[in-house]
Known about the structure:
Blueprint: H1 3-8, H2 12-23, H3 25-32, H4 37-63, H5 80-84, H6 93-104, H7 113-130, H8 138-155, H9 172-197, H10 203-217, H11 221-230, H12 244-270, H13 273-281, H14 286-301, H15 303-316, H16 328-335, H17 345-374, H18 376-379
Helix pairs in contact: 2-3, 6-16, 7-8, 7-9, 9-10, 9-12, 10-12, 11-12, 12-14, 12-15, 13-14, 15-17, 16-17
Amino acid sequence: MSEATIADHIPTPAREQLKVAALGPWAWLRTNLLGSWWSTAVTLVLGYVIVRVVFSLFEWGFVHAVWTVPYGPTGIADTSVCQNAKGVGACWAVLADKYRLILFGRYPYDEQWRPAVVVLLFIGLYVVTGMRRFWRKELALIWIATLTLVGILMWGGVFGLPEVTEDYWGGLPITLILATFGLAFAFPLAVLVALGRRSTRLPAVKMLCVLYVEIIRGVPLISVLFMASVMFPLFMPAGVNVDKLLRAQIAFILFAGAYLAEVVRGGLQALPKGQAEAADALGLSYWKKTSFIILPQALRLVIPPLVNTFIGFFKDTSLVLIIGLFDLLTMGKVALSDPPWQSFSTEVYIGLAVVYIAFCFAMSKYSRSLERDLNRSRAR
């Protein structure tokens, strides 16, 4: 087939894009941004605004920024330098002074290496889980070993580590613990609820799944956390006290499970019935059909909404303040309660935003690459 014949089979818009790409960036610029007088005007105005904003932020955040401040004999920071630069430059010294409190909360200062290692363990666990070559049965053992080590490091009381109760936990480890355990247990619960809601042979199970999803989705997360903190202990036997971290974790699992169940159910409904009929023709049992044929294809279809739900619940861990837990965002607010730093909330919240964006962007980036790899066979 000649090049002219191949070009004839290319759609007109794609053909135009190929021509523009062949001519270089100036042709692309003229075609997309300077194609008419109004397009040129909008491009110039937006370009001017973007340049001014970026230049102003660069001056405020780097050129005129204050990175360190002197400390007095009593160890109190002298923030006069930052006060003089207020409105002109950022005072990043607040992060240098309060980063341990923000990241690790009230955990004993000499033992803060333990939550630091916990954060690294969680990141390593996410990386290993994201690698497809580790998607084997051994991955469950890696999760169990890592989470056990996290518990040993955070609680202590063994191997010569001083015991630290949950009352002293805070910061980034709390956020990662709630998000990781919550989503790890909520996802299999969501799969079971989604399958139960689609069941035709077990009407009682279907009704229970429908009630669970509708009730949980009908109330805000703050209400579920409040109920877990106040009402849950009332149903426990006398003398049995469940710590508030576990109560918050249960609330997150139940809440995330309901939302993830609807996402999974959407993937199951989007799958053609021919897949289930083909599995039935092969004589596969219900669980084999579901595990090896239905669920893998259904989950592949709903990767974007699944990751979107993961990201949402990772950020929703900040709501645990309602029951007295101090996550990353709450510890940022606690750091600002120190009188010398009360007027520098912008810098603290920017630092917190960078941490949240880093984790959320990593999840989003991974989901796009995973979706592209899993759908590569379908595009052929």
